[in-house]
Amino acid sequence: MVKKLLSNKYLIACSLLLLWLFLSLFYIFNNNFSFSIISYSHSNAVISGNTGRLMKGESVKTDFLAQEDNLGIVTMKFSPLDKVPYADEDILRFNLYEYGKQKPYYSSLYRSGLLTDQPVFPFGFPRISNSKGKHYIVKLTSLAGNEENALSLSNQKPILVTRYQVSKSLLLSNKKELLKFGIRKIGLSIHNRDVIFFSFTYALPLLFYLFLISKPGEFAKVYFLDKFHGFTDSTYVPWFLKPVDKEYLRFKRALSNNFELLLFFSILIDIVFIDVVNDITVVLIALLWIFISKKNNVHYTKNFKISLFLIIFSTIILALGEDNIANKSSLWAFIFIFIGFLKSFSDSDNFLKK
Amino acid sequence: MRKQFLFFVVLLLTISILTHLNWFIPKTILVFGDWLYWPKESINGLFSWGSWINQLDGFGQHNIQIYFNIFMFWWAILIKWLPIDFALKLSLFVPLAILSFLSPFILSKKLVKDNLVAFVAALFYGSTTYILFSETSHVPIAFVYSIAPLTLTFFLRAFEKNKLFDWIIVSFVYSLSIAYELRMGLILTVLILIYFIFFNKANIHKYLKNGFIFSFFVLGFSAFWLLPTLFGGAGGSVGELTGRNLFGNNLFDLNHAFTIFHWSWTGIYPNQLFELQKINFYFWIIPLVCLIPLTKKNYINKNISFFLCLVILGIFLTKQSYNPFPFLYEFLYKHVPGFNLFREASKFYIITSIGYLGLMSYGLVFLKDKLLSSWLYKLLIIVLISISLFNLKPLFTKEIGGVFLSRSIPEGKINLNHYLEKQTGYFRTLSAPTYSRWIYYAQNKPRLAFVYLVTNKWENLSNPRVTNDPKKNLGDVMGSVVLNPYFHNILNISSIRYLIIPANSKDDVDDFFKYYGKPRSYYEQIFDKENFLKKISINSTEIIYENKKYFPHVYLTNNLLSYRNVQNIQPVSSKQIDPTFYRISVPVNNRNYFINFSESYNSNWHIYSKDFKWYKLLLGKEKPLELKHFQNDAGLNSFEMESNLNNGNLVLFYKDQAYFYLGTVVSGLFLCLFFIFISLIYGKKIIKQ
User: Fold this and answer.
1) Band of the pLDDT at A239, cuts 50, 70, 90?
2) Which of B483, B504, B502, B494 is nearest to B547 (CA)?
3) Where would you tag: which of A182, A233, B336, B473 has the fewest CB atoms within 10 A of its CB?
4) What is the pTM of this model?
């Protein structure tokens, strides 16, 4: 029965498709602290005041238009800074004003140590139930900034993200609202780099399976040549199609034989461009890698070579002060050492078999 | 070859001595962090570190680290003839300094039979930041870290030869490792199990007989701590410790795990503020050296695979809650029995270190034979030695501080210590905000820290408005306790005779006022206001108050004692045999009364008749008097004595100590058996020759 099910290509492909959808939705709905929080990036937010490092008494300001009701969190991205001793930390005053009002809606003090631990820092405040359409100003003032401890906002956009908590009970009691909320949340998430990347990695098993079951050229035949029925048998191929066909087939073969390259590039993208770590992505890529290297008879030493490369990369990057990227690189180095270790047991020159 | 071996051994010993110079000098005083100052009187007697101790908490507590007797016994014996500092160096510091280099050298030599490689690997192991940090204050942990490669070597030998002699030797070394630090001993056990699974699981039947004898001896050697721990009331105390949340998630990540870079390592004096330090780039050279040979075909074999497995396991655990799978460490901590002893992951660095030790040994031999030219290999050796020596630099220069520095008791405190030493009878001292590391304490003069009490036993005495106010600090909480109208009563009930405000100190082992938010003068002001406290002058830098109305250690009251309602007390003559055993004489009375015993309440304290024998207790032939045992509102013991049970002389005994006595006898017998066995084997050999 199981064998029969496993031999059903359509069933497997559909399962992998469902897996991709499920994991992508799961990530989207758990991405912003909780299911009922919705986030808006303000990539075009204008930063005024001191945009460099905040010394004592200096402030930086930005404003935004609230997109929803129930505004409760404003996250701001800071440039990485070395941690300083607790006693030497800066103290930052966070003020949130409603546009046109003198008195801040919320004001609180934060130690800079918290912000160096968490470069994307969520400033929370009592939820504003009727925030939609209102204009707000965020102001950060340094109370003890100096050469050692002064923070600055990051250059990487979005610097400002606002978060809104929609009532869970409302969503659960009203299916229409829930559906609308879901669509809105998905729509907003697809602008997020992390969501796109992780969703892509969740699709990798499906993509790999499709390449696995399609014989070289067949895929191209279906999607390109069949549209121009008769061209496959004919000696005449229109000039505009020929390069596409050839290039596509070459690409297809290369991709089919070197799917591992695709995985490796995914890993590099993950290391360099993605801030967060997603365990599901780590597991999926690792499993695919094991599967592909088994299929392609890749020697286990290749895993150690990759991990060696990643450790060297990590060392260099760490020297440049990019701790997060270095840690990511070490993470993948560790995964490859682990895979290499496991694979050394199953390879043909396995010492355990001798 | 033998000459070369001896040359490297001498070289390593020289490095040990030069890097740990103060440890080899008899008169130096070594104190820092968790490593306390031990006055001679605090460990007076062979059983001073029994099931119930008051060296850490002056009210006494169940001892869950009874295995420390492995060196406490020695101290108790040696201090009869030697100064205490010298005694503790002989039993702990000197072996640690020597083994930290020699033990990995022996393991590496056994693995690859190359003296130079073994020397480089030993230097690496003895200079990892974790052992250096542990040596500054967590000395028993560092000891097990240093002896672990030697234990593993003995195990390898025992597995290879499978001779009874080797198994008995290894049982002794292994028991020693566990007894110095149980948690590190547990990790070592896991390493050995992994080794067994790797190499010998198919031959398990071959090892059954000797494995059984080995286990028998290990149990015998460990009986002195195993029996009271298994059959005594350690559960609650262990539960208190293991029920805590994880600590220091922000101090661990993958880069630090890869490079065995301890969070506190600065290259000089370690960071004490729990701030993760930046990794120096050269720390990556070791992982790279271990990894390069793995990229070559036909290099990996079963031995290498074992050490690689250790590296993977070690890195995975020492990243604690860092990515990937950040939830896993906490899951293991909460659900795997025994794992909850590891509240933070640094102890697992030993796994990575042994893994790298093995990989480096095999790797260097491979690089020499197959990959590198002679001069490149030599260059690599020089680089590796330089890295280790660079790590050891702060030990040479003493910049690392900790127990590498020799301390001296400040002049101003010596007078106070002499004064306290001269006072007779049982009493406690209470220091505010906490006690100076150098203050005198003995088994009949325990010390208490005010800040510890207001957050634990005396929590109810503080003003909730102060404790719940986030703007207030611990100094304010202590102030609110002093203002409590029952403050005098609680001091009396707790047998507190002296209140001490230590002097300001800039010394790194005694500078504590800054942690509690109030200056020294604040404590003086609050105590000055209490009329019942009399300031006394004894030519000391400390401010001392005397509470003349303190109650004795054991006394009688007509009703159940309460600090809210203090009654007339009747002192009782009591004699302490050891901290778990008191002989008391109560007067004949024709009505019920209460015997109050000012140690922390524990249901294992019982009162027995005067003919009490501890071994009868184990046989079930000794029953305690059937008294009602209460925890009074000061958290101490009160027994209700009925008039018909009143027979004058009684024994107050902590039940678990009987298991400790029995265990000590068993361990002693096994030790004798071990020495007889070794003598016989060697005797036979000599006769044969």
Assistant:
1) very low
2) B494
3) A233
4) 0.86
Complex ipTM tops 0.90:
no
Length of chain B: 689
Rg (CA), chain A: 26
Sign (positive or negative) of CA dihedral B613, B618, B623, B629: positive
Looking at the complex, report in whole angstroms how far the Cα of residue A117 sits from the nearest Cα belonging to chain B. Answer: 8
CB-based contact, A275 to chain B, within 8 Å? no
> Are A318 and B279 within 8 A, CB to CB?
yes
Q: Which residues of B touch A307 (CB under 8 A)?
A: 291
Could you tell me if B610 and B649 are in contact, meaning their C-beta atoms sit under 8 angstroms apart?
yes
**What is the DSSP annotation of B600-629?**
E--TTEEEEETT--HHHHHTT-------EE
Q: Find all residues with CB under 8 Å of B622, minimum gap 6, and list them.
A: B608, B612, B613, B614, B616
Residue ranges of alpha helices (H) inside chain A are 2-7, 9-30, 112-117, 168-173, 175-189, 193-213, 218-220, 242-257, 259-273, 279-295, 301-319, 323-346
What are the tens digits of pLDDT across the range B570-617?
Answer: 888 889 888 899 999 887 777 788 999 999 999 999 999 888 999 999
Residues B195 and B153 sit within 8 Å (Cβ to Cβ): no
Tally of CA atoms within 13 A in the half-sphere of A39 that contains its CB: 25
Q: Which candidate in A304, A312, A322 is best for mutational testing of the B interface (most B CBs within 10 A)?
A: A304
What is the CA angle A248-A253-A255, rounded to 5? Answer: 90
Residues 6+ apart with CB under 8 A from B378: none
Three-state SS letters, A94-125: EEEEECCCCCCCEEEEEEHHHHHHCCEEEEEE
Residue B375 tokens, joined: 């001069």
Q: What percent of chain B has pLDDT over 90?
A: 65
Residue to substitute from B281, B300, B311, interface A, most A β-carbons within 10 A = B300
- Secondary structure class of B582 (helix, strand, coil): strand
Tell me which amino acid residue A39 is.
Answer: S
Q: What is the DSSP string of B150-188?
A: HHHHHHHHHHHH--HHHHHHHHHHHHHHHHH-HHHHHHH
Query: Is A27's Cβ below 8 Å from some Cβ in B?
Result: no
Q: What proportion of chain B, given as a percentage, has pLDDT over 70?
A: 98
Separation in Å, CA of B306 to nearest CA in chain A: 10
A118-121, long-range: CB < 8 A, 24+ apart: A119/A77, A119/A78, A119/A79, A119/A80, A119/A154, A119/A324, A120/A75, A120/A76, A120/A77, A120/A78, A120/A161, A120/A275, A121/A75, A121/A76, A121/A77, A121/A78
Contacts of B329 by beta carbon, 8 Å cutoff, 6+ apart: B246, B317, B319, B320, B321, B345
Q: How confident is the model over B504-546, as pLDDT tens digits?
A: 887 777 888 988 989 999 999 999 999 999 999 888 889 999 9
Q: Which of B572, B623, B627 is nearest to B597 (CA)?
A: B572
Flag whether residue A338 sits within 8 Å of chain B, measured between CB atoms: yes
- CA-nearest residue to B313 within chain A is A338
**Which of B309, B269, B262, B261 lies closest to B286 in space, CA to CA?**
B261
Tokens for B575, please give them: 């004699």
pLDDT band (50, 70, 90) for residue B186: very high
User: Cα(A343)–Cα(A305) distance, rounded to whole angstroms?
Assistant: 14
Chain A residues 284-323 with CB within 8 Å of chain B: 299-301, 304-305, 307-308, 311-312, 314-315, 318-319, 323
Which DSSP symbol is given to B515? G
Q: Do B312 and A337 touch (CB under 8 A)?
A: yes
Task: Check if B308 contacts A (Cβ < 8 Å).
Answer: yes
Interface test with A, best of B253, B278, B282, B284 (most A CBs within 10 A): B284
B592, amino acid identity: N
Q: What are the tokens at B17? A: 């001595």
